[in-house]
Amino acid sequence: MQTIGMQAVEVWKWMMTHLIYINLVLSIIIVFFQRRDPKAVWTWLLALYFIPVFGILFYLLLGQDMRKNKMFRVKEIEDRMRYSIKNQEEFLRNNDMSLVTSLSRDYSDLVYYNLETSGSVLTVDNEVTIFTDGEEKFSDLRMELSQATQFIHLQYYIIKDDEVFDSIIPILIERAKAGVEVRILCDGMGGRFMGKSKWKVLKDNGVKVGIFFPPILGRLQLRVNYRNHRKIVIIDNRVGYVGGFNIGREYISKDSKFGYWRDTHLKLSGGSVLSLQIRFALDWNYAAGENLFKHMRYFCESDDGNCLECLGVVDLSREKKKLGIQIIASGPDAGNRQIRDNYIRLFSKAKDHIYIQTPYFVPDDAVLSALIIAARSGVDVRLMIPCKPDHPFVYWASYSYVGDLLSAGAKCYTYENGFLHAKGVMTDGKVSSFGTANMDIRSFELNFEVNAVIYDEETTKELEALFIEDLKVCKEITRESYGERSIVIRIKEQGSRLLSPLL
Q: Which residues are paired to 362 by β-bridges?
């Protein structure tokens, strides 16, 4: 112990002696080798030079840029998806999108953007069920899990060792013993309180478990950023789930700290499920080292092996449902901010209204500008955030940005019936985007997220009706009430806003 203490002292002396050179090297890396927002660059440089020792530690924990690290590329999927992408490109050039969805060509540019930049094909044979209550969602999930015959792929950011997971474990074990392939993927940070004994029970009963960026020493997690925030379930390529609910008792409103938990989760069927499966397989390949793309049974409803190649193929003689969905994903390994860019495009195209629900509202300049321009152009912009924080730093930063929207004429509300965790955007009663991404810089740049963009009036209007219903239990933040904030609250807001680029 004495030796370790002496070594720590020596390391400290070395750091203090070479502090100028350490800061210089990190400054060069930040400015010249990492593509960042200029505001974030200046914030990091100020942190390094005004709080030098802690600034270095914060940078090592929070500041590394992974955009150039292409962790999730798998040649098999790239080769097989090429045909689907080319096929849809030709279709969009030669046809009106209203032939296959309830929408006109007005949104074909967004479909084309997602197709070109990230290979997100449009599927049009989908059905959507919306869940806003945790008990209902998990009850439906357990029912579908019990009916699995081929495989269960379950991915959550947070899995807690409590009654919710305990209600799922027996089903997973029973299905695994019946010959169903069961895989669970959990984030190393979100699953840090799950006991090893529980994972061992699952593994001993045939369930495969993968941990994304696992902790290195017990529960010690040095990688604070770059968490896998996705919540995806795929069962037999028959149904899929995506949305805001994690696995834990607070998500079924059993935590007195939060009260009722208001979230939004989607249950999908149709071609969009295969798109979710591709996203899961890419994450699983990285975390567990198992390339699922070598086995086409995971990507087909039949045995002909052509499902990936046919994903997104539009057959006008067969398609009846005409509910269009694109599954889009963002992550720090990507070259663009796919989900953020979709939000910006939806905001710029809105003619009548924009409804937003998010637990965290810390937008970058581009998103904030798009909303301000829309509001000042006469679009009815409405933002709904929680009335209580689960992360105080982000809560106060969110409240700071509310002032910018109020000044532009937008309407802002706090949800007063518990905790709001829904993450989505609805525009003009036509297009909606819901999934795992918050309206904040962390979701735009630092975490791995997934959303479903829904090109369907009926589904979008159903989501908007839920938003309007939520307004009955909301409190409006008026310009007058916002201006009456105490000096202490204003300091908290501005301090949190100033530090938000460090995310």
A: 440
From 153, 421, 430, 492, active-site residue:
421
Catalytic residue among 187, 283, 428, 440: 428
Question: What are the start-end ranges of the H helices in 155-311?
Answer: 163-177, 196-204, 271-288, 307-310
Query: For residue 105, what pLDDT is reported?
Result: 72
Q: Of 130, 33, 35, 77, nearest to 335 (Cα)?
A: 35
Could you tell me how far CA 70 lies from the centroid of its own chain?
18
Which of 160, 229, 265, 430 is catalytic? The answer is: 229
**267 in active site:** no
CB distance 279 to 230 below 8 Å: yes
Cα–Cα separations (whole angstroms), residue 151 to 25, 201, 272, 306, 470: 49, 19, 17, 19, 37
Q: Does residue 321 have an active-site annotation?
A: no
Catalytic residue among 153, 265, 423, 430: 423
Is the pLDDT reported for residue 178 higher than 70?
A: yes
**pLDDT tens digits, 252-280:** 999 999 999 999 999 999 999 999 999 99
Position 87 confidence tier, pLDDT thresholds 50, 70, 90? confident
Q: Reply yes or no on whether 229 is catalytic.
A: yes
| CA 444 to chain CA centroid, nearest Å | 8
Confirm whether 428 is a catalytic residue. yes
Verify whether residue 295 is a known catalytic residue. Answer: no
Q: Is 421 a catalytic residue?
A: yes
Q: Is the pLDDT of residue 297 over 80?
A: yes
Kindly tell me if the per-residue pLDDT of 40 is higher than 80.
no
